[in-house]
């Protein structure tokens, strides 16, 4: 599997983007009940702040560097130069690769409207893609019986890849809780459903390379995201400075 390097206690997988696609498809083909996290600044900070959540992230088979600061931090902590591997880019790349290799996919999470738009695009652009199914769960805690029914529904569809969009940290906790119960490679891709479905805009590539995607999302959803970005981004910078200071103490 992909080599890992630690960033503030989170073990980030490394390699070119194509190697992440290949690793995920290998897990899918093996029907390995594994899960994949896409770690941005928010996830790394939450994993550092909450040890239980940190264990959930570090137990993933693959932890992709979703955020540009996370990818850059890999090198700052002595790892290789690493490209960003964002869930929003990985989703279309994985769907295309799955279509080429004959692997099936399942979409879990978000709303029926988003799922319908997502599937419509996938069927139009990738007519050979095998979509095993999709399901939008209720926005409330599920009973044990409801959860067992959902697991049975997904396993009956028998997908190779299960894309999960429940938001962080809920989707990561859901995948960890269902490891060993669902016979598929699970991927927590969050907002990628919305962007792939064409329901949320995305910055052009040049702006993403300048690390401006967080500012654009804050502009789109200021009430929901201002506290997250103010607190987590500031804490990430502080933790990085503190960690770098400990790595290079004054003599």
Task: Give a written overview of the molecule.
This protein has 251 residues and is α/β, with parallel strands linked by helices. It has one domain (4-196). The protein has twelve helices and eight strands. The chain has helices at residues 17-29, 41-49, 51-58, 68-76, 87-101, 112-125, 144-157, 170-178, 192-196, 205-209, 213-220, 222-247; strands at 4-7, 10-13, 35-39, 62-65, 104-109, 130-135, 161-165, 185-188. A six-stranded parallel sheet has the order 4-3-8-7-5-6, sandwiched between helices. A two-stranded antiparallel sheet has the order 1-2. Helix 1 crosses helix 5 (87-101) and helix 2 packs across helix 12 (222-247). The longest helix is centred in the C-terminal third of the chain and has 26 residues, at 222-247. The protein is globular and about 50 Å long. The mean pLDDT is 90.
